[in-house]
Hints:
This protein starts with a helix and ends with a helix. The chain has three helices and two strands. By secondary structure, it is mainly alpha-helical. The longest helix is centred in the last third of the chain and has 45 residues, at 68-112.
Amino acid sequence: MASALIYLLVVLVVAAVIYLLATLVFGRGEQLEALPPGSTPTRLPATDVEGADVRALRFQQVARGYKAAEVDWAMDRLAGEVDDLRGRIAVLQRQLDVAGEELRDARSADREE
Length: 113
């Protein structure tokens, strides 16, 4: 019985040493290096967010994924940018429709003369 306990203790010690060595050599499995406490990598430009800005976006990692407040902030900013772009598209579409109608009216007036 005592040899089984010693064997179990040796196995646990060897496993712990291997785990610690692997953690030191390979890190915590993150792609980004750890940030100093209180800092955040989450940054977006004040206006005119581009695809490259979204692709470069990074969030602070916490115990269960990413920091929720940072993700919420980024999603709100991106949603606002999408709403703004859709509004600009709608205005331009209306202007295009009006210009098209004016062009048709001008062409039909030229044909009548």
